[in-house]
Amino acid sequence: MNEQTLSKLILERSRYRKQGNFVDADALRKYIENTYNCVVEDKNGGETICVTADKVSDRKKRKREEESLKQQKQRQKQYKGIDLKKLKEIPRARTLRNKKLNFQLKKQKARFFHFAEFIKLTFLNDVWFRNYKKSTITCMDICGGSGNLSWEILSGKHLTKLDDEKRFKLRCIVVDPKIINFSLHKSKLIVKQCNIDTTCKDHHCDSNTEKNLLMAKGLHPKIQKKLNCGQMRKINNYLHASKGFEQITTFFNNQQFMEAHKSIWNKADLIIGLHPDEATDDIIEMSMQDFKPFVCVPCCVFPNKFPNRKLKASGKVVRSLNQLIEYIMEKADETNQKKHLMRKCMPDNVDVQMLYVVKKVTIEGIPGPCNEAIYGKYYVI
Fold first, then answer.
1. Most confident of the following: 5-19, 39-53, 279-293
2. What is the pLDDT of residues 143-186, one digit of tens each?
3. For a tag site, which of 43, 286, 312, 371 has the least CB within 10 Å?
4. Do residues 238 and 187 lie in contact, with contact meaning Cβ atoms separated by under 8 Å?
5. Using an 8 Å Cβ cutoff, are 50 and 32 in contact?
């Protein structure tokens, strides 16, 4: 009796659908499913069938098993030689990818430490800087971004200590159009070193309206909310005077930068560029032109922006990192052929001649392939 009634209801529903009365057809479908505990399905041929809820659950379960087996086979291709039974113990592809990504991020963050270590060993502990007459050595960090490299150079906690024969103060100028953004950890460290109490209930200082607070603007927003104007000025003075941290918010190019900041360029003792992108050519060419000590690690090539870069040997346009390094070293060979000499007075009042040479070296601590450093410095002859 129930089957005959069910078949009549299904026929009536199909008649409603043919007439275009979908409202009554949908209401009848809900009545059938609730009364007979089944699912009404319409096939492509226009046939309507009624499937029990148990069959539907079995079908969904079977479909999930098939998808799971398909995923296991895909993972088996990644891990060849492993049985499907043991595959459950292997981490999923997404987890493995996240582990690789986190490991790569740690290596990227560590590149500032290793590059700062290279600068200390190669330049600041060298004969040229060790017998420097200036009391302050100015390092210009071109395209320094968030100032992580300058922070590592100035902090120097885990770096090679400078030679005790000559004590001098370090000063880093970050040249980048973006304002330096200190992390929350660095911001807390700066506030702690300045002996500032952030629990006081003074009014909040708007760093955008206050002038001469460029370095203090880089503090983390959570820290800025707790500081008043006097405390912001104290932090700004600390970063400038005690820490030796400065910034020039501008692009670095040959003409505009030299017109506005020529005196700062002339006072700079070491030019630094870690992955400076479009500024790579200007850093190396201007440093070699003035025979300034410099170190630069090229990265991105930008062949469409620099179509004039052509190799002398083959005449090809520079389109890869290896070709870019080859192109730079061709210019370095021209500088080395000039044999620029400079007389240096040693502590024992002995004059020595020093030769300006441009070389390249691979820094192992920086993750590849962008770990080839090109540097110019003075050597005793």
1. 279-293
2. 988 888 998 888 765 455 555 445 568 889 999 988 888 888 88
3. 43
4. no
5. yes
Sheet holding 351-362, edge to edge: 245-248, 169-175, 136-142, 270-274, 294-297, 372-380, 351-362, 341-345
- Where are the domain boundaries for CATH 3.40.50 in the chain? 111-178+249-380
How many residues in the chain? 381
Residue 353: φ, ψ to 5°: -100, 140
Distance, in Å, from the CA atom of 129 to the CA atom of 281, rounded to the nearest integer, reads: 25
Distance CA 69, CA 66 (A): 5
Residues 6 or more apart from 206 whose CB is under 8 A from it?
A: none
DSSP SS3 for 145: coil
DSSP alpha helices (H): ranges in the chain?
Answer: 2-19, 22-36, 53-78, 93-119, 127-130, 148-155, 184-193, 221-224, 229-237, 254-267, 280-290, 321-338
Where does residue 159 rank: exposed (0-12), middle (13-18), buried (19+ CB within 10 A)?
A: middle
- In CATH, the architecture of 111-178+249-380 is 3-Layer(aba) Sandwich (3.40)
| Distances in whole angstroms, Cα of residue 136 to Cα of each of 229, 237, 244, 304 | 29, 17, 10, 40
Exposed, middle or buried by CB within 10 Å (0-12, 13-18, 19+), for 153? buried
